[in-house]
Design goal:
alpha+beta, rod-shaped, 4-stranded antiparallel sheet, single chain
């Protein structure tokens, strides 16, 4: 580098050499070259200082950087970690489309599985026995219904109730079947929503008893069938209906014990599973109310006149059990018929005492 005096000298020589009519002697020209060379010469780098002795356990290939908290971090570790992060980012940028596709596939699979598990598909069809499946196959083979529409809904006393459609689902059908006997009933969907569909099938039980199975079907707002069923024991010799064959047999026994006409005996209500009966006395034509009927001499009360003497009348029967009186009152006639049970009842005479 030039000092101040040499810089001034250099400028003067340059002005004389490069100015108009400039001229330098050989000595001055040599001096100019010397000064210019001195100005452009770069300083030599400082000589390296002697390295401090390393610890005997220090890896000469690895150096460390001391961070602000005093923790020493290996430069090699930093370089390796940075390389790994850069590689991961590069791989992610390269395969981001694949990652998005995989995530979308998992989302679709999740939606499908959720639908399969939680979707409402309506009521499940009833499980049929091998014999009942044969009945259903016969109904399908008849060709009277749309293919694939016959579906078993429920059963009542061994009678299977099916739902089916016909005329390309324009009509809905209720089909009752037992063995080789079927009772179909069909109507339009609109009528099924408003009035429903009714069907009855008679199933023989014994020689003088039948099961009358009745079913009624409505369509919900979603178009799914809703079925109500009920069944009664009937006899060709009587217009009465009973809940079971045992109840029908009890009516026969009651007729033998009380003299009531078997054809008129029926159950009008229950008190803790105990039946309350009515019937007409065969000899006097009086209307009678009977409790239980399973004992030889059951409690019974009859009206004073004939059955059709008045439009609306009431029969009252008091039964005492363990010191407590229960009154059974049956309203009958041309109006509404019903049974009233009053526990702990006391008559006016008993209340006055």
């Amino acid at each position: 580098m030039l000092d101040a005096e040499e810089s001034v000298e250099l400028q003067a020589l340059q002005a004389r050499a490069y100015g108009r009519a400039g001229a330098l002697s050989e000595a001055e020209a040599a001096r100019l070259r010397e000064l210019e060379a001195g100005r452009t010469r770069r300083a030599e780098p400082p000589a390296p200082t002697a390295a401090e002795p390393r610890s005997a356990h220090t890896d000469p290939a690895a150096s460390s950087v001391v961070e602000g908290d005093g923790a020493s971090v290996s430069e090699e570790a930093i370089a390796t970690g940075t390389t790994r992060v850069d590689s991961a980012l590069a791989a992610l940028r390269q395969h981001w489309r694949l990652a998005v596709a995989i995530a979308a596939a998992f989302a679709v699979v999740g939606v499908v599985l959720g639908w399969l598990i939680f979707a409402d598909r309506g009521p499940a069809p009833m499980q049929l026995t091998a014999q009942q499946e044969e009945w259903q196959s016969a109904i399908v083979a008849s060709g009277g219904f749309d293919p694939g529409s016959v579906r078993a809904m429920t059963q009542e006393e061994g009678v299977v109730i099916w739902f089916a459609t016909k005329n390309e689902s324009a009509d809905v059908c209720l089909v009752l079947g037992h063995e080789d006997v079927t009772a179909p009933a069909c109507t339009t969907r609109e009528q099924a929503r408003i009035l429903g569909v009714n069907a009855t099938l008679t199933k023989p039980v014994e020689q003088n008893q039948n099961y009358d199975v009745q079913a009624q079907m409505f369509l919900t707002q979603d178009g799914e069938p809703a079925v109500i069923t009920r069944s009664y024991i009937t006899s060709p010799q009587s217009s009465s209906m009973f809940a079971s064959p045992e109840e029908a047999e009890a009516a026969t026994t009651l007729a033998e014990q009380t003299g009531l006409d078997r054809r008129t005996i029926q159950v009008v209500g229950y008190d803790d599973q105990v039946p309350i009966w009515t019937g007409i006395d065969a000899s006097t034509q009086r209307y009678c109310l009977v409790y239980d009927g399973s004992m030889p001499d059951p409690p019974m009360a009859c009206d004073d006149g004939q059955m059709l003497a008045d439009a609306d009348r009431t029969l009252a029967l008091d039964v005492v059990d363990d010191g407590e009186t229960t009154r059974y009152e049956y309203q009958f006639g041309y109006g509404q018929q019903y049974l009233t049970v009053t526990r702990g009842w006391e008559s006016d005479d008993a209340a006055g005492e």
